[in-house]
Structure formats: structure tokens, C-alpha cells
């Protein structure tokens, strides 16, 4: 299972890593690849993870989720 999360507010490699680490802490997330330029995180999951879990993790890290597909 895969989801793409659009993230606003990242401006550097540190931001990219912070979002990636926040996503990887969610139970069920196997991989998280964050593209700083596109403002996008591609996530692979071992189980269904609710959008609210992604939104909370990213916003708790200090960034804004604009869309999840």
C-alpha cells in the first residue's frame, strides 16, 4: 500500500529528514521518501494508516499537509 503526502514548509535537507523521520515513526510505515523540491512524501505501508495519523505526524514536526492521495 502506498500514499503520497504533499507537504508545505520544507526549505532544506534538515526539514526533509525531519518529515521523513516523523513518518517513519508511524506504526505500519515501512519506507518514507521525501522529495524536498516537489514538497512530496511517498510512503509505503504494511497496513492501512489513516490520513489523520499522517497529518498529525507531519504537523507535529512543524510542517503543513496540503493533500494526501
Short description:
This protein is of the alpha+beta class. Helix content is about 30%, strand content about 35%.
Walk me through what this model shows.
It contains two helices and four strands. It is α+β, with helices and mostly antiparallel strands and about 70 residues long. The radius of gyration is 10 Å and the shape is globular. Strand 2 and strand 3 (about 40-45) form a beta hairpin. The protein has a single domain (about 1-69), classed as Alpha-Beta Plaits (2-Layer Sandwich). The protein has helices at about 15-25, 50-60, and strands at about 1-10, 30-35, 40-45, 65-69. The model has no long low-confidence stretch (mean pLDDT about 100). It has a four-stranded antiparallel sheet with strand order 2-3-1-4, covered by helices on one side.
List the helices and strands and how they pair.
Layout: E1 2-8, H1 13-24, E2 29-35, E3 40-45, H2 51-60, E4 64-68
Antiparallel strand pairs: 1-3, 1-4, 2-3
Beta fraction of the residues? 35-45%
Helical fraction equals 25-40%
Question: Would you identify the CATH architecture?
Answer: 2-Layer Sandwich
Write the CATH fold name. Alpha-Beta Plaits
Low-confidence stretches: none
Task: List SSEs in N-to-C order.
Answer: EHEEHE
Q: Figure out the total of helices.
A: 2
Give the integer mean of the pLDDT values: 98
- Report the principal-axis shape: globular
Total count of strands: 4
Q: Determine the structural class based on helices, strands and strand pairing.
A: alpha+beta
Rg value: 10 Å
The end-to-end distance, rounded to whole angstroms, is 11 Å
Largest sheet: 4 strands, antiparallel
Number of domains: 1
Amino acid at each position: 500500500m502506498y500514499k503520497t503526502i504533499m507537504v508545505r514548509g520544507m526549505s532544506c535537507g534538515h526539514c526533509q529528514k525531519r518529515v521523513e523521520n516523523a513518518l517513519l515513526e508511524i506504526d505500519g510505515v515501512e519506507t518514507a521518501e521525501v522529495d524536498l523540491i516537489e514538497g512530496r512524501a511517498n510512503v509505503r505501508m504494511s497496513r492501512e494508516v489513516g490520513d489523520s495519523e499522517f497529518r498529525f505526524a507531519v504537523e507535529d514536526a512543524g510542517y503543513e499537509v496540503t493533500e494526501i492521495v
